[in-house]
Amino acid sequence: MLQTAPNIAYLKAAWAAFAGISGANAKQSYEAAGLSFTRINHSTLVRKNDVQVSTMPIHYTRHDLRVGFLGRIENEVRKAAFEMDAVFYRDLELPEGHHLVIELEECLRLLRRRGNRSLSILIEPDGSIPLDAAVRVEMRVFLDAPRACVYACAADASGQVDLLDGAAKRARMPRASDYAGLAAQISSTLNDAFAALPRAQLAA
């Protein structure tokens, strides 16, 4: 199940449906939120425009509906994280003494608690190298569409150096049609940045 690609159209529609009845829109009517409901046997199909975003029992509350959206979104987020991890494993050339950390469980905890829409993916030292050879990367991946913000720095004698200084906006804030493509773009950007480091810092 987790090996299938995330449904991007569903993610966009489900987040829009969730936003339509949450926060400042908590008291907005279902019609104003663009939601429609169809009863089939003992279930209710919920659609945002033309996309089915949830299946509910006959009787449910607005809170139940929000929780249902987030539960289905969580499944798609797990797929997205798995898809990106596979691409990073294949394409990303980590500097020696560094590892990749996908903060998926923290992301999902915040998603369930308050509808958090981003996943942090880090590259950080694994403890085997001195701090003055350390590289730190944060990829803030958004969960409503395949897009991200990428930050990368390395230590030097003067402090921290931005490894993406001068990089195009599309490199720092990439977008793609799917999460595999997003991970491939980020890998290419970071590999170019890592190639500018001293050779001793690069993985074999």
From TrEMBL:
It comes from the Bacteria. This is Uncharacterized protein. It comes from Dyella kyungheensis.
